[in-house]
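Justification of resources, computational component.

The compute hours requested in this renewal are based largely on the per-chain cost of generating structure records like the one below. Each record pairs the submitted sequence with a full structure-token output. That output is archived, and it is also reused by downstream analysis tasks.
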Amino acid sequence: MRRGDLLVAALVVAAPGVVLPGCLWSFGEDEAQGRICAAPVEGSEFCVSSGEGPASAWNQAAAHGSLPMQM
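The structure output for this chain reads:
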């Protein structure tokens, strides 16, 4: 196989992975993605950025409710 044919074959295989949803644009992006939420038994929900970690959501929920918590 010539080098040019190999390059074309590689592009044909790789192209769908680049242009499928999620790579160039997002369709109906999930709003909860990247967030961690905790809810005390009373039912309110406390969400934080996933960068803050689960302890932050847990602490907020614990301050406003009682155990058991749902993450």
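The first strand starts at residue 35 and ends at 38. The beta strands are 35-38, 46-49.
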